[in-house]
Model the fold of this input.
Amino acid sequence: MLKIAKDKLPQLLQAWAAGARVFVPQEKDGTRVFLPWDGQGKLTLDEGNTLEPPKDLFFPRTETMYRYQVQGQEAGVTEVPPFDAKMVLVGVRSCDARSFAIMDDVFLTKGYVDEFYRRRRENTRVVALACTEAAPTCFCTTFGIDPGRAEGVDVQMWPLADGYLLEVVTEAGQELLEQGTGLLTDAGKEEIPAAAKPGLVVDIDGVTAKLQRMFEHPYWTAVSRKCLGCGACTYLCPTCHCFDIQGENRGNSGYKFRCWDSCMFSEYTRMAGGHNPRPSKKERLRNRFLHKLQYFPERYGKFACVGCGRCLDRCPVNVDITRVIREVKEVTL
Amino acid sequence: MAEAARVNPLVPMTGHIIKIVEETPDVKTFHVTTEKGKPFTPMPGQLAMLSLLDVGEAMFSITSQGPEHLELAIKRVGMLTDALHEAEEGQAVGIRGPYGNGFPVEELKGKDILFIGGGIGLAPVRSLINYCIEHRQDYGNLWIIYGARSPADLCFKGDLFNNWPRVENCRVDVTVDKGDASWQGHEGFVPAFVEELQPDPAGKVAVTCGPPIMIKFVLQSLEKLGYKDDQIITTLEMRMKCGIGKCGRCNLGSCYVCLDGPVFTLAQLKQLPNEY
Done:
């Protein structure tokens, strides 16, 4: 176990930044987001999780895929190569670390590998930061996530009053910490601080089976009544992965990019000719919750929710997935 | 233009429309090929993502293929299909695929097949009809029941009135919702026509595609005639962007129509949410 003093952490980030792009939670416009470390920013590692999840580092909001030229009846396509730079993500909480495994299932399995995602993911080292305090909206333990130790990361950190404890998890993590020689000291008798205990806990047992029988239930009309269809929940969700493919055309040439999309929008499923299989917010909200709690478990064997609480914290009308889970369990069929 | 192999499965090949056949006032069949020949060799019922690079991209069924080209029959309904209908032979396109499961050609071997199509819904079914005709000895009797709004709206008239009726043990019955002065054939909706013709379910599989409202009533008619859920096959349409089960929008429950469909038996569909 190693330790780094709080005032030395910027130097460690600097050392990593020499060989990779380092992303770490920093203050921006009064909130906390993962930003590239340039040595100047204000770190917010001790202030709870970021407003936005780090998913855009593997699955950017917009990502150009190819360029094209059209000349009369001729056309050519030039593929944009995948992003190949190395990245280090520092300060990833256990909930967001779980979300990476969920996104891996989507982008790397079931017949097709998304090369853009794969390269970013494989070229990235993850340094997790344990939570010792839970926000009122945190409910990661509901999904068996340990706020004190993240899954699938390279280094695990714990906050101390005057610094951080660091534990190597993988070989790549070992290499990272070797770059911090001189900054890191032996942790000696320092003890791992107690993990946060989220007060919000929901019983998720049997919810998938219950939902399998609830597709036609009037509950979805009731719960969707207040939804504004703004899509904030999907943009802030670390596991929402829906995307659109769009183009930008200028004269004879242009480029095609993929960008985040949201199942909360009516355009999302509307077909040419006008037919829409999910015509109202009832069908759309139902699909979102069923996707998280039924469809994803059926397809990939795990829930597509990590209990980060961002959606319930930021929903303008307080649609609350923990409440939905509780109510679903109570609904009589 | 020479093309490098694709790293990203979402990037299309470029090719050209080499022939355009006007089927009806709002349906044209586009023959597409690339410099290297046929873009790919789909199985019946599979899909292709076709694009006009400076307009957009959408998923279409592949209605037929030749040794060097694919055929996509496309109805004019939106922005991209408008532009396609304005295009001329020689137009460059993007194409990627094939996507989806296609029809269960192996399981259908040895069976009689009843095809029921309405309007442009004949397009995906036609890929299977032609496959069964090419592999005639593998399949039993073929019976095609097809309808459209008017005589002018009948797609694939050459097949309906010339090619298919000449195939051995292949019966073709055509109806229109409303005939015109010169129409000598049957008048009436497809589901009622099916009930009138009474195709016996014994040893048969029914394959149907058409407008959602037609499918709904055809399924009721087939049930009335005694067809079981696993004897009925249909192929679905959904808005799609990726075609590879990742972009999210074409899900029916935990199935993705682009990957696990578009072909489903009625028995399978009844296990899935009714959201198509």
